[in-house]
Amino acid sequence: MRHPKLVLAIFILSGAAGLMYEVVWSRQLVLVFGNTTQAVSTILTGFFGGLAIGSFLGGRLADRVRSPLRLYGIIELVLVIIVLLTPVTFRLLHEVYRGVFPTIEGAPAALALLRFVLAILALAPATVLMGATLPTLTRHLSRDRHLSAAFGRLYAANTLGAIVGTLAAGLVLIEVFGLTGTLVIGAACSAMAGAVAILLSRNADEAAAAPASGATAWREPAWTPNLSVTAASRRPTLALLLAFVSGLTSLGYQVLWTRLLSSGTGNSTYVFTLILGMFLIGITIGATLFALSRRWIRQPIALIAIAQVVVAAIAIAGLVLVIGQPGTIDPRKPLESAEAILLPILFVVLPATIVMGFTFPAASTLLGNDPARIAANAGRLLAANTAGAIGATFAIPFFVIPLVGSPVAVALLALVNIATALALVASRTGRASLPSIARLGTGIAAVLVSGATVIGLATPGAIVDPSVARIHDARAILFASHEDEIASVQAGATVTPQLWVTGTAMTLLTVDAKLMPVLPLMLRPDSRSALTVAFGMGSAFRGALIAGLTTEAIELVPTVPEMFSYFYADAAAVLANPNGKVIITDGRNHVELTTERYDIIVTDPPPPIFSSGASVISSLEYYRAGHARLNPGGIMMQWVPNGATIDEFRAHVRTFRTVFPHVSMVFGPGGYGLYMMGSDQPLVFDDAAMREVLGRPGILDDISSAYDSPATTVDDWISRIGQLRWIADAEVDTFTGPGPLITDDHPLPEYFLLRRIFNQDVPETSPDMLLRLTGR
After folding, report:
1. What DSSP assignment string belongs to 199-259?
2. Region 219-243 average pLDDT
3. How far is CA 678 from the centre of its chain?
4. Please, are residues 484 and 397 in contact by the beta-carbon 8 Å criterion?
5. Which of 30, 202, 467, 746 is spaced 20 to 30 A from 568 at the CA atom?
6. What is the largest CA-CA distance in the chain?
7. What string of H, E and C letters represents the secondary structure of 271-312?
8. What is the CATH number of domain 507-773?
9. Is 313 exposed, middle or buried (CB count within 10 Å of its CB: 0-12, 13-18, 19+)?
10. How far is CA 316 from the centre of its chain?
11. What is the 8-class DSSP label of residue 764?
């Protein structure tokens, strides 16, 4: 007995665990390597690379063992041990990275190579084992069925588990149990799958199985002749090519659709989770449809060709009609936000992925059913598919998007689908020549692109990037793209110039930004050096240089500093100042790994407060790293933008206070948030020191020039800052009380769904509310 239903059930568990691992590891390794596009791409490459190697090697091994099911169980149990050791492994890699980083931070190629090697070392042991599971179980189940039947059913089951893992981890588990707890839950799923597989293998009738070299012992099931895959249709090379194209286009569309659909939503973690979840749901539905209809498929090549055309048509239609106008997300209205995000996903992602989910397992029908190479063929097919995914992970963010942009990149992938369909038709008929195929493909491509362009011109904003299309009553006066990030300057008759990154407003020329380096300087007027994390419009960087501080500015998005001159006429002179330096890197990475020390560290996290990745520069570990980078008596200033509930705001303040013995909090005069300043020495605003700082050349003019500045003279500013001062030290402890902290393991600001659903009436913090709560 093969226990097919139980085997599919344990493979669902395995799929759920695998996506939990991917979600958690991606997050943990971003903390090691940084949140740059290169770093994230390197992590994904390491993940997919291990899967590809495991698929290939696992398939070859599974064909040589008596009990593939027992082998699968052993693989899962060994995986559990490796998974539970990954926190230790990642910490060791972090120390290695820490030791090398300062010497190669300015050498991007060397840094990328180091990240790649370390990512492979971190992920390979686990991902190689994960990659071996599908071909191993395919070998077990295909002793009773055709390879394509076992492969299709297992692929559907594993992807169904991936849906469960993605949604459970992204929507519930990380918020409730944290990253480590989610990893342990995933390990428990793997352990259960492995244990059940070993128990089932003891009862399986292994003696009835065909030996690896004994093709004569294997018999086709009685119904198999209904699958009209003739000898001429058994094209293993074509199957591998189709698997590669499937991986390339499916991951390519996933990268692009995620980027386009999440634009303007604040880059919420939940947007990414919903898109990935819906992507996997479509794949599962498609794979299930293939498993149910497989025996009636008579012309697999023709069917795959039609599927390629359908995917291309859906992609182009979605690009023109839906993706160019994405929804928005408001954490105060989680259900309405989910609806706004899900609608375009349902219209674009789901239909296309259903077809994709059908196409990839359909390619397995072209492999034939050699009983001696069932697992090896399944492994090769999966490895080819994963290799295509790796290609998309690298090529699209690094080369395609910078050259042509995301909308055109979608059209290019559609052309790949069309070209594949034409090649399949030609290979099936054997009559079409390569030039005729090229001419036909070019003609179809021209029709698709022309149609999209005409509709786009008739519907303003339809085929431009949503990062620009969603700006109302304004126009883009500068637009620049780098990899998967877009920065733009928006201005209009009624709109103050703003910096937008990937469709989200980052900042404007507010007094709140101009005061960021000035307030700490008033508390430590003898400061000589400063670090600003997040360049933005450059207000804090410029203000620190005006104050005479040697200043470094960290910026994640390379195109953001290019916008500097559109906000400040003296931008060129500021950038040429020998006391200033702009470094394009991850802020968390730099603060943790640099050997430099500073008198002032200013951190201005990108809004909104719940955006994906914002917690890495507002966590306990980040504040500890910042404290370690300060000179004695130095000050760390953390900007807390509006948008948090009172409990979330308390967590921010409580976390900061845990690190710094002395804390002073000041409201932003522009009303956009609040300054938290911490030090190992007392923080006291002294009128004489404040006058000295305001008297330095350029400072008063700078902070008074903002459109929302509340003062213009030294006396007015001293009076206004006195009014804005809120609480300090013991008062901070009284306000926060006991409660959770924001940590790398529990990134509370980013995972808020359950809190917001069950507490929808809790208002966001405001200065008036905070003053009432503290009796001011």
Report:
1. HHHHHS-GGGSPPTT-GGG----TTGGGS---GGG--HHHHHHHHHHHHHHHHHHHHHHHH
2. 58
3. 31
4. yes
5. 467
6. 97
7. HHHHHHHHHHHHHHHHHHHHHHHHHHCCCHHHHHHHHHHHHH
8. 3.40.50.150
9. middle
10. 24
11. B
Quote the CA–CA distance of 12 and 170 in Å, as a whole number.
18
Residue 753 pLDDT level (bands cut at 50, 70, 90): confident
Q: Which residues contact 131 (CB under 8 A, 6 or more apart)?
A: 50, 51, 52, 53, 54, 55, 56, 58, 382, 383, 386
> With 80 as the cut, is the pLDDT of residue 266 above it?
no
pTM (two decimals): 0.83
Which residues of the chain does CATH 3.40.50.150 include?
Answer: 507-773
480 forms bridges with which residues in the sheet? 487
DSSP string, 404-461: H-HHHHHHHHHHHHHHHHHHHHHHHHS---HHHHHHHHHHHHHHHHHHHHHHHHHSTT
Give the residue from 43, 307, 374, 13 showing the smallest Cα distance to 158. 13
d(CA 634, CA 653): 19
What is the homologous superfamily of the domain 235-467 according to CATH? MFS general substrate transporter like domains (1.20.1250.20)
CA distances from 111 to 59, 95, 98, 399, 559 (A): 34, 15, 12, 19, 20
82, 126 Cβ separation under 8 angstroms: yes
Residue span(s) of the chain under CATH 1.20.1250.20 come to 235-467
Q: Give the CA distances from residue 124 to residues 120, 414, 492, 507, in Å, rounded to whole numbers and listed in that order.
A: 5, 32, 51, 41
Over residues 456-501, the pLDDT tens digits come to 444 444 444 444 444 444 444 444 444 444 454 544 444 567 777 7
> How do residues 668-694 score in pLDDT, each as one tens digit?
999 999 999 999 999 999 999 999 999
